[in-house]
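#struct-help
A.M.: can someone run this one for me? Single chain, 138 residues.
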Amino acid sequence: MHGSLNLSVVMETMRTIDWIFLLALIVLLAFSGTSGERLRNAGRKIPETKAEPKPDTSNIIEVGDLVQFVFTDTPNELRTVTITDDKSDPANGFITKRSPLGYWLLGLQKDQEAIVGLPTGGRSVLIREIKKASLYSL
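D.P.: on it. Structure tokens below:
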């Protein structure tokens, strides 16, 4: 049996190669990409990050808000509408965000005067009051 391979030696060699391959793979993964960054930065103090403050929209007209306004050519006629996603009932004060008036009111602020484009032509409006949906729908 001089020319034959010893099976136990072959098996031991394969196990050793498997372990070396596995170790090399672990090292490769540990030091590549974000995993490597985490290992290299282990023990370093991570700076605190602060969340960006939400912008104050309390004075900006958004969908769901109840809005009181006047057309400046008829300043004694206070009008009240609620801007909705899809409910349109102008006789009862509901207009959609896609209606001409709803479209132009969105984004305006309290005490702001602006020209709104209506089917009958442009008219100047003055926003008197904005009641946020979260405050009046409780």
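A.M.: thanks! The first strand starts at residue 66 and ends at 71.
D.P.: also worth noting: The chain has two domains: 7-40, 66-133.
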